[in-house]
Design brief:
By secondary structure, the protein is an all-alpha fold. It has 2 domains: 85 residues, no CATH class; 204 residues, Orthogonal Bundle (MetI-like fold), CATH 1.10.3720. The protein is 77% helix and 1% strand. It has 14 helices and 2 strands. The chain has a two-stranded antiparallel sheet with strand order 1-2. Its main location: membrane. It is a multi-pass membrane protein. InterPro entries: BPD_transp_1_N, MetI-like, MetI-like_sf.
């Protein structure tokens, strides 16, 4: 396991280099940030001075090399909008996004796993058709539309939950349902298909012939062998629930990383954009490694 983790850590380097290049190219193509940092009355001399101080007058490859050397030390520059270190600004929003992402994933698992199992053991029944149809609709439903409907029903009409902002669990319920709805639909379909396949295996029929009850067959044998695909889905979805919830956080005015990135893009605060995207990439890579470790814990047949 230690050798595998060391090898996996070494694989970070080329991945992060590629991510760094993509982020830098996108920011480079977004336009000149100096135009937003200075007032309209700035003279050409002031513009040239600022461009030189930021290194924007240098060739592309030189700028990219400077960018790489800075991010190796965690320096993404200063945010001209917040007048603070860009990574510090992003990290200050990370706890709120982690809380929301974890709650959204907890909701998704609590809903999807029972429904997926129930749909599999009642295959081709009216209940199965209903759950499958709801899963397809949930996956296809636009996130912003679901969020707006939840706000209109539960925040405006019935006044059960706050409309927006943060400040406690009540502020997170509607964003978590909105954010976790798509993941719940996808996981439910995954659990159903894998459970149907597993329940048709010979060892399940053998267990039934030995007189094992439905509960033991479903949860101690069938579902246990379906965990690996679920772990894969969770480790893939969780980083995007934490860092990629741009639409949800914007709709609910939730002060997380997603809302910060939207505001930074609109303001062309590229230091914050670079720091946010890079942090999300690190979370994705880390969660993939966690998923591989969990595979080994769940299924001892897997060797690294």
């Amino acid at each position: 396991m230690k050798r595998y983790l060391m090898r996996y850590a070494l694989q970070f380097i080329p991945v992060l280099l590629i991510i760094s290049l993509i982020v830098f190219v996108l920011v480079y193509m977004a336009g000149d940030p100096v135009a937003l940092m200075l007032p309209d009355s700035a003279t050409p001399a002031e513009i040239a001075t600022l461009r030189e101080s930021l290194g924007l007058n240098r060739p592309f490859l030189v700028q990219f090399w400077i960018f790489l050397t800075h991010i190796c030390s965690g320096d993404f520059g200063m945010s001209f909008r917040y007048h603070a270190d860009a990574m510090s600004v992003v990290l200050s929003r990370l706890p709120a996004s982690v809380e929301l992402g974890m709650l959204a994933m907890a909701f998704a698992l609590a809903v999807s796993i029972p429904l997926g199992i129930w749909s599999a053991i009642r295959r081709n029944s009216s209940l199965d058709v209903l759950i499958t149809g709801a899963s397809v609709a949930g996956k296809a439903m636009p996130t912003f539309w679901l969020g707006l409907m939840l706000i209109l029903i539960f925040a405006v009409k019935f006044r059960v939950f706050p409309v927006s902002g943060s400040g406690g669990l009540s502020h997170m319920i509607l964003p978590a349902i909105t954010l976790g709805g798509g993941a719940a639909a996808e996981i439910a379909r995954l659990v159903r298909s894998n459970m149907i396949e597993t329940l048709g295996q010979d060892y399940i029929r053998t267990a039934r012939s030995k007189g094992l009850g439905d509960f033991d067959i479903i949860f101690r044998h069938a579902f246990k062998n379906c965990l690996n695909p679920v772990i894969t889905m969770v480790t893939v979805q969780l980083p995007f629930l934490i860092g990629g919830s741009l639409i949800t956080e914007t709709v609910f005015a939730y002060p997380g990383v997603g809302q910060l990135l939207v505001q930074a893009v609109n303001a062309r605060d590229m230091s914050v954009v670079e720091a946010g995207v890079f942090l999300i990439a690190l979370i994705v890579i880390f969660m993939n490694m966690v998923g591989d470790v969990l595979y080994r814990l769940v299924d001892h047949r897997i060797k690294y």
